């Protein structure tokens, strides 16, 4: 395995490619889902009733293709989004024409180094076994304020794809206080679903989960880690050593 210093930072193009590959992978593998991927654009439908789990992604939207693929996703009858590199007039025109409204921007972030999360007293972070993956759904539901059933397709996929999807929980005296998952794909790990219920926030639990996902991946040869950050989590990821490599706009359906 190469040392972290030899891996180097990601370019915007590399990180965008990882994002598109992950979205295509999810659409292809979630039961009942589908995806289209041509290298520059991905349309992905997982059927999960959250806008950012279905949509069209492109760093450089093509006017005809982006609009056409948005229509295909809309016809699936699920909440959906359009995501593209910030400032794209083509992307904004297509999203507006589709009746989407602009949501929170999603910075695309990358690190190739082991993280610098501090030690949290009494916290135990561990990878969930196949029979425990329902715990991820329960803790994520509490963290995101959503029904646990929303995460059931990911849990089912996790059972089927144990080599690619790694689920984690953080516990204090046996009580779950945070969760997250890593998608191992294309020699990298994508960090998803970092969730902490409101009563357990601002204690370093989400950062500890993120650090464990990344460190485990680097230990088995991953070249780096990437994620799309929320506004709330951005400063946390910066402290963990992530760099901003691009900002993506996110437009969502009602």
Protein described:
It is a single chain. This protein has 254 residues and is of the alpha+beta class. It has 8 helices and 12 strands. It has helices at residues 4-7, 12-29, 63-74, 89-97, 134-144, 152-160, 205-219, 231-239; strands spanning 34-37, 41-45, 54-58, 81-85, 101-102, 106-111, 123-127, 165-172, 175-185, 188-195, 224-228, 243-252. Strands 1, 2, 3, 4, 5, 6, 7, 8, 9, 10, 11 and 12 form a 12-stranded mixed β-sheet that branches. Helix 3 runs parallel beside helix 4. The radius of gyration is 17 Å and the shape is globular. Mean pLDDT is 93; it is low at 1-7.
Largest sheet: 12 strands, mixed
List unreliable stretches of 5+ residues: 1-7
- Protein structure class: alpha+beta
Q: Which geometry do the CA atoms define?
A: globular
Strand-and-helix sequence, N→C?
HHEEEHEHEEEHHEEEHEHE
Helix content: 25-40%
Mean pLDDT: 93
Radius of gyration: 17 Å
Q: How many distinct beta strands?
A: 12
Count of helices? 8
Kindly, what is the distance between the CA atoms of the first and last residues, rounded to a whole number of angstroms?
A: 46 Å
Beta-strand portion reads: 25-35%
């Amino acid at each position: 395995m190469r040392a972290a210093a030899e891996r180097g930072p990601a370019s915007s193009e590399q990180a965008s490619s990882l994002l598109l590959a992950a979205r295509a992978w999810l659409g292809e593998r979630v039961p009942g889902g589908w995806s289209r991927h041509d290298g520059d654009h991905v349309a992905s439908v997982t059927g999960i009733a959250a806008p950012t789990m279905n949509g069209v992604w492109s760093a450089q939207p093509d006017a005809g293709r982006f609009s056409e693929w948005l229509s295909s996703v809309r016809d699936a009858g699920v909440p959906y989004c359009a995501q593209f590199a910030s400032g794209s007039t083509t992307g904004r025109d297509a999203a507006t024409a589709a009746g989407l409204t602009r949501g929170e921007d999603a910075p695309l972030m990358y690190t190739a180094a082991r993280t610098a999360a501090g030690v949290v007293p009494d916290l135990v972070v561990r990878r969930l076994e196949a029979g425990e993956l329902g715990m991820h759904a329960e803790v994520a539901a509490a963290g995101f304020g959503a029904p646990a059933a929303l995460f059931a397709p990911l849990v089912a996929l996790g059972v089927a794809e144990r080599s690619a999807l790694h689920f984690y929980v953080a516990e204090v005296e046996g009580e779950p206080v945070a969760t997250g998952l890593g998608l191992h794909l294309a020699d990298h790990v994508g960090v998803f679903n970092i969730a902490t219920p409101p009563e357990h926030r601002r204690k370093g639990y989400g950062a500890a989960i993120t650090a464990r996902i990344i460190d485990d991946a680097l230990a088995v040869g991953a070249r780096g880690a990437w994620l799309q950050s929320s506004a709330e989590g951005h400063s946390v990821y910066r402290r963990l050593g992530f760099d901003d490599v691009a900002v993506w706009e996110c437009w969502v359906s009602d």
